[in-house]
Amino acid sequence: MVKLFEKAIFRGVELRNRIVISPMGMYSAENGYVTPFHLVHYGKFAMGGAGLVFVEQTSVTRKGRITNGDPGLWEDGQIDGMRQIAHVIKAQGARAAIQINHGGRKSGQQRAFRGNGPLTDRDIEMGEEVWDPVGPSDVAFSDGFRTPRPLSHDGLVGVRDAFVATARRAVLAGFDVIELHMAHGYLLQSFLSPLANFRTDDYGGSLESRMRFPLEVTRAVRAAIPSSTPLFVRISATDWIDGGWEIEDSVVFARRLKELGVDLVDCSTGGNLRAGSTNANLARGPGYQVPFAEQVRREAEIATGAVGMIRSFDFAERILQDGRADLIFLARQMLFNPFWAHHAAEHFGLTGKFEDWPEQYGWWLTKWHGALHASGESPLDEGRLRDAAE
């Protein structure tokens, strides 16, 4: 049995395989509303054969956006556009997921493809909206970033309720899976990390206190959505900075998430900073984040997703066969080759040529493939894509 193409079931939601399109910010929304770009962008991944397709980090409030290009579900008018995306994904046989988020002290940045970093006076002159961010403490993310306003008790309640309202809208839009973003230095992860949380009340200090607000949000969202809807959480398993959040903290946190009804922990890393620091301990390479998914899975006894430069078909399969994770999350590799899943099925001999592709494509590709072989030519795309995947 090829585990990559084994079905996975979470609360009755069945995935046709264990290949997941990871959330990737496209920064292309308008006033928080998705555009035709998003419909095409996500539709192609479902056509490509993935089992679960995630819509990018979607803001729970207008001022919780990371950039002015982030999509949102903070108001009912945004549901229809998201509903179209979910419908297109599911019409191709995949399941639709959405990641919901508040940017916290990292909100109000420039779009990634326009330079990242804090908005400048020139950006504001060009019409970019600017706002003061919020966070656990009045500590800026990095040099040049605005200093966040610490959230009061009423502010915490408001953010929690915004997550709940957004999750409910996501269900109305037709999403099968909801993920809470608790990674990469955004609001919920910044409460967890001692690099960002310097509070002296019940929401800061000890590990138990720093976990309190993210767990309150989790509990409230779990109670607000149908019991049949799986709830995932993305974490940064480590900050990669001495004195920051560590894998041992993640194991403790994952156990608590499981108790609250979370179905899978999506294990990323990094994304948080403190003044004058860098991710000095970070060494990227193929599968560099997989050990964290493995440790959380083993010690917290919860399903995990593996991410991080997983490119080859055989490597992805080996992660699953070795019991290091339950799902494989792919990002940049899918941008390069949206049909990675179909190529993987062919690689493992599970299908004939193009028989599981959309039938509108399969007919053309079969005809092309046969013509190439008849002429003695090599089907260039197959070799090239597989070489790149390796």
Description:
The chain has 390 residues and is of the alpha/beta class. The protein has one domain: TIM Barrel (Alpha-Beta Barrel). It is 37% helix and 14% strand. It contains 13 helices and 12 strands. It has helices at residues 36-47, 79-91, 121-125, 153-172, 187-192, 207-224, 247-259, 290-300, 313-321, 332-336, 340-347, 359-374, 380-389; strands at 8-10, 13-15, 19-21, 52-59, 95-101, 134-135, 149-150, 177-182, 231-236, 264-268, 303-306, 327-330. Strands 3-4-5-8-9-10-11-12 form an 8-stranded parallel barrel, surrounded by 7 helices. Strands 1-2 form a two-stranded antiparallel sheet. The chain is globular. The two termini are 22 Å apart. The model is unreliable at 385-390 (pLDDT under 50).
What are its keywords?
TIM Barrel, NADP binding, disordered C terminus, 390 residues, oxidoreductase, alpha/beta
Termini separation (Å)?
22 Å
How is the CATH topology named? TIM Barrel
Strand segment tally: 12
* Mean model confidence by pLDDT: 91
CATH class: Alpha Beta
Largest sheet: 8 strands, parallel, barrel
- Shape, please? globular
What string, H for helix and E for strand, traces the elements in order?
Answer: EEEHEHEHEEHEHHEHEHEHEHHHH
Structural class: alpha/beta
Estimated radius of gyration: 21 Å
Estimate the helix proportion, in percent: 25-40%
| Oligomeric state, counting identical vs distinct chains | single chain
Cofactor: FMN
Organism: Mesorhizobium australicum
Protein name: 2,4-dienoyl-CoA reductase
GO molecular function, one term: NADPH dehydrogenase activity
